[in-house]
Amino acid sequence: MRILLAHNNYTIQGGAEVFFHEVGRVLEAHGHQVLRFSAAEPGLEGVPHAETFPEAADYKSGSLLARALQLPKMIYNREAKAAFARAIQRFKPDVIHAFAIYIQLTPSILDAAREAGIPVVISCNDYKHICPNYKLFHHGHICEDCKGGRFRKAFTNRCCHGSAAISAASMAEAYVHEWMNVWRKNVSMFLFASRFMAGKTLEFWGEDTVRIGYLQNPFDADKYHVDAHVGDYMLYFGRLIDEKGVDTLADAAALCPDIPVVIVGDGPDLEKLEGRARELDNLRVVGPAWGDELAKWQQGARAVVVPSIWHENFPYVILQAFAASNPVIGTRRGGIPELIGAGPHGWTYEAGDAAALAALMREVRDTPDAQIAQMGAAACSYTRLSFSDDAIYERLQEIYEQVIT
């Protein structure tokens, strides 16, 4: 089978690029021919066919007028469509697997796939297909104002980076894509890592309007292995930004002065959280940590806290915690309960409820070490079995065969 993978960026900038390349790696390891297609960017010397990658709109530099003139290309990149059509003609794929293609490649490439008669599956790792700002969240709260095609709400809410200009551009993009019907007419199957995101998609678009499938991200549990342990503090690691709900964890720490809490990470809320740490003897904010340094913090943790107040889809931080044998305290938002509820892997509470989180922190503190260790071992085993290369490949094969036949 020949698979053409399409994603905005070739170089790894975050979890989306890791997903894109890991799917390709798994497919190649099982004998499939894979072509990766992205937008042009510096540093791609030696990448197969990189010279054929299309230019994306430059919306970050130049005058306001210059950036505004790039808007049509950000919505529907005709150069990308033509380049993708040539890639299809050259490679002759059996199936196309798209990932994040907004703004750079744009959904124009989906029209090229349909015109060539090639089935398309697309992995949705955010809410961009139904929400102009990707998150169903802005200014500290969950938002579904654009449901029913009311994309003007993106502008009135200033929900995209708090900017009227960016929100207006995102509103225009959503209206054009809806008018052109670029998603539903071109995609054979929409893939989701969580049933929550799939359900939200059907809420916005209507039941039975699109074909839904499930594909979770490949994950190398061995890379994040930590020797068996049961620590004494509650650990948060990740980005320090409002939707992650780290303020709630700080509030819970204030309610549990006898339970140590460690926050590892960086982001816009770092300074504010450092201020909270100066007020609380049991709260420590240590800044960013990666690799072996992060593993040391995980080794000393009793549980990892994921206090997100937005609808997280499939947070890698939970898989990292599980791989390190850390049980997780998480909110009942998005796909978080699906991971924690897949076994005896942790506890859940209502997002934003510091008192409920504090109560769980006390429960975790008082749970016998042997039980915490057993939960951590179960979480680690679940991650190894469910996200192995073989498990992901079996699912990919099922998906591709469904859309080809």
Walk me through what this model shows:
With 405 residues, this protein is an alpha/beta fold. 42% of the residues lie in helices and 15% in strands. The protein is built from 16 helices and 14 strands. The protein has helices spanning 15-29, 64-68, 71-75, 78-91, 108-116, 152-156, 164-180, 195-205, 246-255, 270-279, 291-299, 316-323, 336-340, 354-366, 369-386, 389-404; strands at residues 2-6, 33-37, 95-98, 120-124, 137-138, 141-142, 189-192, 212-214, 233-239, 261-266, 283-287, 301-306, 328-331, 346-349. The strands form three sheets. Strands 2-1-3-4-7-8 form a six-stranded parallel β-sheet, sandwiched between helices. Strands 11-10-9-12-13-14 form a six-stranded parallel β-sheet, sandwiched between helices. A two-stranded antiparallel sheet has the order 5-6. Helix 13 (336-340) links the parallel strand 13 and strand 14 (346-349). Helix 4 runs parallel beside helix 5, helix 9 (246-255) packs across helix 14 and helix 12 (316-323) packs across helix 15. It is globular. The model has no long low-confidence stretch (mean pLDDT 94).
Topology:
Elements lengths: L1 E5 L8 H15 L3 E5 L26 H5 L2 H5 L2 H14 L3 E4 L9 H9 L3 E5 L12 E2 L2 E2 L9 H5 L7 H17 L8 E4 L2 H11 L6 E3 L18 E7 L6 H10 L5 E6 L3 H10 L3 E5 L3 H9 L1 E6 L9 H8 L4 E4 L4 H5 L5 E4 L4 H13 L2 H18 L2 H16 L1
Parallel strand pairs: 1-2, 1-3, 3-4, 4-7, 7-8, 9-10, 9-12, 10-11, 12-13, 13-14
Antiparallel strand pairs: 5-6
Helix pairs in contact: 4-5, 9-14, 12-15
